[in-house]
Structure formats: structure tokens, C-alpha cells
Amino acid sequence: MRHRIATLISARGPSAAWKRAYTSTSRIPLAYDLHEPSNPSSDAAGAIVFMHGLFGSKKNNRSISKALARDLGRPVYTVDLRNHGDSPHHPKHDYLAMADDVAGFMDEHKLKNTTLIGHSMGAKTAMTLALKSPDIVADIVSVDNAPIDAALLSGFGKYIQGMKRIEAAGVTKQAEADAILKDYEESLPVRQFLLGNLYRPKDSQTQKFRVPLKILGSALDNLGDFPFKDPGAVRFEKPALFVRGTQSKYVPDEALPIIGQFFPRFELADIDAGHWVIAEQPEAFRRAVVEFLSPKV
Which positions, given as ranges, span the membrane (predicted)? Predict the structure, then answer.
């Protein structure tokens, strides 16, 4: 695995000054990790770009990306979307902006015939880019999200409240942050996922969140929406796999017709999981993706 931060970004650690600064440009250069296969495939398939969900980062998809690089013989780029991980912050946070960032990343790295994989927020980003610029995308894998307007689960708003309370408390240890977050989320794995965003700024005794809570809190309504409304006006005519957790409410049966209108060549893979499909059922997810992306004889 190689770790990179896209050009125009200093390669300093997470406490570097640029981490707290806002960029004034519209397109964000994305931080990323590159997982290269030990035995590259001889077919013409290009790279895979893997996008995380809200409050996530490239590190969340490290294990599954290594497995996909191994099984498919293709390089996998896991990226930090804007306002997440090691990528810069920007006050605009919606799917068109995030899709444009990914398009810029693909252009910078000269990626062709690219597969997009995204979970939740990353899934809608992948769908948006596929519909906006189908010529630069070979296929997509959308994980537990659909091209519809749907309110986010109420938990995300509570998470923002809890994380703001943690920062206001000036915690010095993750255990102190976890004790506060228990008032907002019962699940330990979910709390650990959220607290993975904590870091200690240089010359500071207290911990802060890498993600800009005010920006993301203001963006929650946008993240429930989908920028394309009319499947008669735009569609992605290439292969698409929609993976949904059968215990999740993000891809109801009622959404399947609209998925078919925007993505007429879509396939559906149901996995016995909640919204966090990849974390809950990594092997089932790996099998579904490998089957979908393997060259057809």
C-alpha cells in the first residue's frame, strides 16, 4: 500500500496548519491511499476508486480494498472526500461538489476505465459522477443508498450534537469522549467509528475532530437529497451494482424502479446487514463485488 496526498497539498501530519484552513478553490485535491495488486490483471480493467460515507475516511475501507486489489488484480484508490480524513475543508458540501472532486482526482492520476465504489454518502457521490460524466466511469458499485431524496437517519444529527459536546468539554482522552457519546449512541462499534475522527492538534492538550462539525451539520439536509430528479433526462447506461443491507431502510423496494430508470443495467445484491454493510458482512460484500467486476467469459 502506498499513502499519498494529492498534489497541491503538503504531506505533513494531521496537525499541519492546512488541516484547519479552508480552501478557496471549488475543486478539492483529495488525500488517498493506493492499494496495488501483487499480481496485476492482464485484462483492460482500470483502477477502482473507493469512497467512504459520512464521518468516514479512507482508512475505513483499507482491509476490503486490499482484498479487492488481490482478487481482481486491479489497483484500488481509497480517497478521503472533502471535509473528511486528511482532505481539506470547504464550506460547500454537496454531491455535485464531491463528484467534481473525484473527477479531478481521476484526471490528475490519469485514471481510465474506472470503477467507482461508494458507501452511503460515497454511494451517492459515485452515482452523481456516473450520471454527470458517464464517459469517465466504467461501472459503479453503490452500497446501501439510492438515487432518491430521502431524509438521513436521525442519528446523524445526534452524532453532530454529541461530537460538538465532546469538543466543548475539552477532553484529553478517548475514554472521556466515549463517555459523553454514550448519551447519543448506544452501539460501541458506531461510537468507535465516530471517535476515529479525534486527533490532538499540535501544542494542544485537548482533542478535536478532524471533520468540520459546523459544515457537516449544515449539510445534513443536502446529503439526504439527490441532485438529479428526472431519469428521463440523464441515465447511466453501463453496469451498476446496488448492494443493500436488508436490515437497512436506505434502499426500500419502492426505490428499485427509480434505480432502474437512472441505471437501466443495474444488478441488485441483498446482504443480511444494516446500513454498515461492509463492516458487518465484509466477506459477503467482497464476494458480491468480485462476482460483479470479474471479467465475463
Answer: none
